[in-house]
Fold these 2 entries.
Entry 1:
Amino acid sequence: MPFGERFQSKHDLHTHVPEKRSEKSSLHGLEFSLQTFGLALLQHKSGRAHNQNVSISPLSVFFALAMTENGASGETKTAMRKALALPPDASAEVLNLSAAAVMRSLLSHGEAELEIANAPWADVKSTISPDFVSVCQNIYDAAVQTIDLTHPSSADTINA
């Protein structure tokens, strides 16, 4: 079933009901992947932090991986898609448009402030695809940054 048509039933976690392809159905498909990814991430983190509280934002991690997946290829892209719980037939376009729809939906509620601070960083010697830069800026509201990764202060710059 195409990613844009996946829909997670509120009553049965394993039932998929096809919907007419639309932003709404793409949103449901992405929500299913977000839920699956988020639960797996929380389970992994809490399993490593015995007798400790775990606080994590699966949405932020999901968006960071989904954004950088646009610049990946081969085995790396396959592994990222698997980690994100994306169906094999999910196109990059549908993933990106669905992510943008989720962000618009979250921002439209107005009950809470949403700020995502994801930004891809690359070494100054790297070649970065203009299409990748465009997707990062237009879909994920993230500016691609370059830095000399051999410089000792680069980690401090990125973390700041």
Entry 2:
Amino acid sequence: MLELLRLGTEPGERVRVEIGTQSLRVTAGLTRLSSRLVEGRFPEYDRVVPDPAVWSKHVVAEREPLRQGLVRAAILANERYRAVRLSLEAGSLRIQAENTEQEEAVEELAVDYDGGPLEIGFNVGYLVDALAAVRSARVRMCLQDENSSCLIDSHGETEGCRYVVMPMRL
């Protein structure tokens, strides 16, 4: 769908859509986009997307300071794995990144969190991408433990997208 939006058609320009049983083709001007249905078994998405009411740990933070802290820490993250460690304690989030040169980045942010201590690792690129897509000023991160996925969404808004980021072993 994003690629269709990138076609950059002008208002009133004709777009031709051809739908087959296993494919889709869209033609706009000199641009042609083709897509083919990939068959296979896919996981039940609702088993992967956590229910915020069930997850026991909720972090609420200002989106932009959190995103900027992650971007700064990413500078020293290992180039291959891009891992960051998030350490949560009451009212505080610590972001740590290390690389093979023994360099370390540490960012500390004040957040709304009253759960027990938790350390969890993520690919920093996935967190930054999710935070860049959220439109609200505050975000909520729902967590369970260091092995479970993280749900990121807009805090206090009933509509919007939800982003699931899987953890990394550190």
